């Protein structure tokens, strides 16, 4: 079994409201979304920091069984309901000098898709900034 997680963009990154559109070839600060799910790691392509960053990415997550010797077996629907591991989403900002900053960390409970019609659901995730930053959506 697989879980396909599609990121459809970002909105209200207010800290970057006044950020000018980067010119072609210009070095600029970027956002990268990192995911972790059951020993699988993924990351998006870096996108320029903006008030509405163009985070358009799809991730195919494998859902395996937990038991000994079952690591290579896909989980059935009943087993999937019992899996409580969440998708850990981490947003990182990389500035022009290659320094990285944690922008947000979020745990997504993916199991709601199991009871959704056609096995699809849309979820808006609020990525709260760390420290004194504003919340990101």
From TrEMBL:
Pfam families: CEP76-C2. The lineage of its organism: Eukaryota, Metazoa, Chordata, Craniata, Vertebrata. PANTHER family: CENTROSOMAL PROTEIN OF 76 KDA. It comes from the Eukaryota. Residues 1-134 form the CEP76 C2 domain. InterPro entries: CEP76, CEP76-C2. This is CEP76 C2 domain-containing protein.
């Amino acid at each position: 079994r697989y879980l396909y997680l599609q990121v459809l963009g970002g909105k209200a990154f207010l800290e970057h409201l006044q950020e000018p559109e980067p010119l072609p070839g210009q070095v600029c600060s970027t956002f990268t979304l990192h995911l972790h799910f059951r020993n699988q790691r993924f990351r998006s392509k870096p996108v320029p920091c903006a008030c509405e960053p163009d985070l358009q990415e799809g991730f195919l997550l494998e859902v395996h069984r937990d038991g000994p010797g079952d690591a290579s077996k896909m989980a059935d629907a009943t087993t999937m309901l019992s899996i409580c591991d969440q998708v850990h989403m981490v947003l990182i900002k990389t500035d022009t000098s290659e320094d990285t900053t944690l922008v947000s960390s979020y745990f997504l409970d993916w199991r709601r898709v199991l009871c959704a019609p056609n096995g699809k659901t849309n979820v808006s995730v609020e990525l709260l900034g760390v420290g004194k930053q504003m919340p990101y959506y």
